[in-house]
Amino acid sequence: MPSHRLPPLPGSTTLPAQRRSTTPAGLERFNAAPADDVRRALLACCGSLRWACRVTDHRPYPDLDALLAAADEAAYDLGPADLAEALSGESLTALPAGAYSAARTALSAAHAAYESRFGHVFVIYLDDVSPAEAADRVLAAIRSRLANDPEDERPLAADELRRLARGRLVRLARDFSGTGPPSPRPAPARVEHPPGR
Is there a cis peptide before residue 188, judged by omega within 30 degrees of 0? Predict the structure, then answer.
């Protein structure tokens, strides 16, 4: 009887036990940390307690994509009170160091008008924007969104908040130590007022 050989299989044929872990060390610590520590870290990503509890309760996450998908799902399920809670924890977008006082004045006025109209600070995802373009992008976005009705602005603010949380989660999953205060939000640029500007 002739011997039969199986045809070569496409892709990796390594047994699962032999594969190396591709989970970042920070995510492994995130998965193993006490729930209270994780919730506290997640609240720095998005200020909704419901969101933080839900993301915490679905651990462990096999990889970053699974964590981000769970975070997105939790964000899409936020009700108006949860969204208001999350937005109340946000702060104004920091201007890059060296921004002119005219830009500061224009942004301050735009932020004040937005907050007066909608009852919360303006939120926008800027991780994909160069620091030199940030002020212009924020000012243009505020001016554009000021024309919205509150009912139309709510889902836009919720989506920007979800995108901010995703960016913060990426940093958290990379750097989570499980000890000390978490800092997934990037530190705001220290703004100095140069003389004569």
Answer: no
Report the amino acid identity of residue 114: Y
Residue that has been written with the tokens 């949860």 in this structure = 82
Which of the 8 DSSP states describes residue 192?
-
Render pLDDT for 89-143 as a digit per residue (tens, 0 to 9).
Answer: 998 877 666 667 787 888 889 999 999 999 999 999 999 998 888 888 999 999 9
With a cut of 50, which residues of the chain have pLDDT below it?
1-4, 6, 12-21, 180-197
Task: Please say whether the structural domain 23-175 has been given the CATH code 3.90.1640.10.
Answer: no
Tokens of 69: 């998908």
Count of other CB atoms within 10 angstroms of residue 38? 24
Q: Where are the domains of the chain?
A: 23-175
Name, in order, each residue with C-beta under 8 angstroms of 26's C-beta and a sequence gap of 6 or more.
172, 173, 174, 175, 176, 177
pTM of the predicted structure, to 2 decimals: 0.76
CA pair distance 187, 15, nearest whole angstrom: 43
Q: List, in order, residues 6 or more apart from 152 with CB less than 8 Å away.
A: none
Between the alpha carbon of residue 47 and those of residues 33, 167, 192, the distances in Å are: 20, 14, 28
Count CA within 13 A, CB hemisphere, residue 42: 29
Cα dihedral 37/88/190/42 (nearest 10): 20
